[in-house]
Design goal:
CATH superfamily of the largest domain: Type I PLP-dependent aspartate aminotransferase-like (Major domain)
CATH architecture of the largest domain: 3-Layer(aba) Sandwich
Number of strands: 14
Radius of gyration: 21 Å
Number of helices: 14
Distance between the termini: 42 Å
CATH topology of the largest domain: Aspartate Aminotransferase, domain 2
Largest sheet: 7 strands, mixed
Order of helices and strands: HEEEHHEHEHEHEHEHEEHHHHEHEEEH
CATH class of the largest domain: Alpha Beta
Mean pLDDT: 96
Length: about 400
């Protein structure tokens, strides 16, 4: 076994895909410092899109709940960890997502690996986008159901699969992301819901990177595209735009009751810590009451994309706050990230197996911490790094 491990690590290192942890200190306002360096770096890899992790109201609510209810829930929800504050949070999420009920999970990964196996099993079919998040794929594998991937955002391919396979399985579950985490593009949800009306599948939409950022109330792409009635389960997280931790599934009361009884990652996990619940409640309030937060972010995103074009970077980054710059080769992507770090810009090279072979990239996440001067410098530095590494 040890030889196999050694061989695996050596192969990853040779291919430029070996993952390593990089301990850092968060300095605040979007700046970080690596432990082995004195350089302050502007963070372009954070999902704290609205800077709510440092918002005074979020911090105050977290501190209040910590002092009132203690550091931990002490047990799973179905034991003695089912505190009133958990229900308060779920009662806020449900109408936010235009659903009857909701259920909280420890993380987005736990949500997807709990929800999907609860709803599908042997004799069923799951169809998911080829670029779906790893948590979705792992949920599919845990389910024991047959899984088929359709070409990214290609609903014609999805319909072809449905027309060929619909009669062969008891139930069909389709799982997509509304904003794809590594590519930053959007799923055509309205067309997908129209397809659902014809084929009668159960639809799950992962809104991890859309919650808090889109729609009249900041609920997500489901709200913006006005398709809530056609989505059976809206999943999302608190650990990205809402600045805290945890995840949720919003659905009908019947589906939520079913998940309470079948989703193993809910049943067998300790409830969210009270301080996290407090932070999540405060963040939800801010999302709904201060739309300027997301408007500011969208303005920064548009400005950065303009700067990329101005500096000759022609990649079409898509419509969201996630902006991938495609490199292809993993070693080259790492080298460009290292060049950017010399210019005090911290962005991670995303490599296989997180993304498909040959599609290594730099994944820029724009947040409200970024000022126009930061964005100008980043685009200019990126152009210089791309030229230097390619020479």
């Amino acid at each position: 076994m040890m030889e196999l491990m050694k061989k695996f690590l050596l192969e990853r290192e040779k291919a430029g895909t070996l993952r390593k942890l990089s301990p850092l200190i968060r300095l605040g306002q979007g700046w970080v410092r690596l432990l082995d360096s004195e350089d302050e770096l502007q963070d372009f890899s954070s999902n704290d899109y609205l800077a709510l992790s440092e918002h005074p109201e979020v911090i105050a609510a977290s501190r209040k709940y910590l002092e009132m209810f203690g550091a931990g829930a002490g047990a799973a929800r179905l034991m003695s960890g089912d505190m009133e504050i958990n229900h308060l949070l779920e009662q806020e999420i449900a109408p936010f997502k235009s659903k009857e009920a909701s259920l909280t999970f420890g993380s987005g990964y736990l949500a997807n690996t709990g929800i999907i196996p609860a709803l599908a099993g042997r004799g069923d079919l799951i169809i998911t986008d080829r670029l779906s998040h790893a948590s979705i794929y792992d949920g599919c594998m845990l389910s024991g159901a047959r899984t088929i991937r359709f070409r990214h955002n290609d609903l014609e391919h999805l319909e072809q699969i449905l027309s060929e396979k619909r009669s062969q399985f008891n139930n069909i579950l389709v799982v997509v992301e509304s904003i794809y985490s590594m590519d930053g593009d959007r799923c055509p949800l309205a067309d997908l819901v129209s397809l659902k009306k014809r084929y009668g599948f159960l639809l799950i939409v992962d809104e991890a990177h859309a919650t808090g950022l889109y729609g009249p109330n900041g609920s997500g792409i489901i709200e913006e595209d006005n398709v809530s009635d056609g989505v059976d389960i809206a999943m999302g997280t608190f650990g990205k735009a809402l600045g805290s931790y945890g995840a949720y599934a919003a659905a009908s009361q019947e589906i939520v009751d079913f998940l309470v009884n079948r989703a193993r990652t809910f049943i067998y996990s300790t409830a969210l810590p009270p301080a996290v619940v407090g932070a999540n409640l405060a963040a939800l309030y801010l999302i709904k009451s201060e739309p300027q937060l997301r408007l500011d972010l969208h303005q920064k995103v548009a400005f950065f994309k303009k700067q990329l074009r101005k500096n000759g970077i022609k990649d079409d980054p898509g419509p969201s706050q996630i902006i991938p710059v495609m490199i292809g080769d993993s070693a080259k992507a790492l080298a460009i990230a290292e060049e950017l770090q010399k210019n005090h810009i911290y962005v991670k090279a995303v490599r296989p197996p997180t993304v498909p072979e040959g599609s290594a990239r730099l994944r820029f996440s724009i947040t409200r911490y970024h000022q126009e001067s930061h964005l100008k410098k980043c685009a200019k530095s990126l152009a210089g790094a791309l030229h230097k590494v390619s020479v």
